[in-house]
Design goal:
The complex is a heterodimer of chains A (114) and B (112). Chain A has 114 residues and is mostly beta strands. Helix content of chain A is 0%, strand content 56%. Chain A is built from no helices and 11 strands. In chain A, the strands form 2 sheets. In chain A, strands 2, 4, 5, 6, 9, 10 and 11 form a 7-stranded mixed beta sheet that branches. In chain A, strands 1-3-8-7 form a 4-stranded antiparallel beta sheet, with no helix packed on it. The radius of gyration of chain A is 13 Å and the shape is globular. By secondary structure, chain B is mainly β. In chain B, a hairpin with a 2-residue loop joins β6 (55-58) and β7. The radius of gyration of chain B is 13 Å and the shape is globular. The N and C termini of chain B lie far apart (37 Å). The chains are: A mainly beta (114), B mainly beta (112). At the A-B interface, β4, β5, β9 and β10 of A face β4, β5 and β10 of B.
């Protein structure tokens, strides 16, 4: 069966520090991968998505970047965190072979910037 | 702007009652999905309805879709305390890009 792992679960970082959040998927190949951010009590904001290795689509210009170095690995990064980067970050995957595929989410990383 | 907007934003009901949540969207779609999120967790897919379907059922869930009004509703029958969660609709926007836009969510509280 397919599983998605996202870590760390919580992270507290000072303003101006770098960031690296990792997400890996097991049990499937060539998934579509997604990074979302969720503000407290709000909906999900799509940050990046990828349909293949090295293919990254950015949805919102901001202080973050994403990379997909391997088929089932998706990394969210920042060189210098801002206070506004605080939030709940969710990684998700879906089958890439047709539309209408459900998205499967990790348990998220709660990021607090001090 | 958000593709999907749910209402109400929050809903509190007694166990055993039915809960209805609505989702409105702005552009044409190929399909619409509903997800559930327990507090502090990731989202879980509940049900998908395609643009050529009007109604789907899954257990205690009933989803309707009215493409002429660009709206969908999620009905949870005979609610349980364990149904307490936030519920989100997600639309593909007929973009053909495998991305979905999520609404703002309805926070459902079921009182025992």
């Amino acid at each position: 069966s397919q599983t998605i792992h996202q870590w760390p679960a919580t992270l507290v970082q000072p303003v101006g520090s770098p960031l690296s959040l990792e997400c890996t998927v097991e049990g499937t190949s060539n998934p579509n991968l997604y990074w979302y951010r969720q503000a407290a009590g709000r909906g999900l904001q799509l940050l990046f998505y990828s349909v293949g290795i090295g293919q990254i689509s950015s949805e919102v210009p901001q202080n973050l970047s994403a990379s997909r170095p391997q088929d089932r690995q998706f990394i969210l990064s920042s060189k210098k965190l801002l206070l506004s980067d605080s939030g709940f970050y969710l990684c998700a995957w879906s089958g890439g072979f047709s539309d209408g595929q459900p998205q499967h989410f990790g348990d998220g990383t709660r990021l607090s910037i001090l | 702007s958000q593709q999907g907007e749910e209402d109400p934003q929050a809903l509190s009901i007694q166990e055993g009652e039915n809960a209805t949540m609505n989702c409105s969207y702005k552009t044409s779609i190929n399909n619409l999905q509903w997800y559930r999120q327990n507090s502090g967790r990731g989202l879980v897919h509940l049900i998908l309805i395609r643009s050529n379907e009007r109604e789907k059922h899954s257990g205690r869930l009933r989803v309707t879709l009215d493409t002429s009004k660009k709206s969908s509703s999620l009905l949870i029958t005979a609610s349980r305390a364990a149904d307490t969660a936030s519920y989100f609709c997600a639309t593909d926007g007929n973009s053909g890009t495998y991305k979905y836009i999520f609404g703002t969510g309805t926070r459902l509280k079921v009182l025992a």
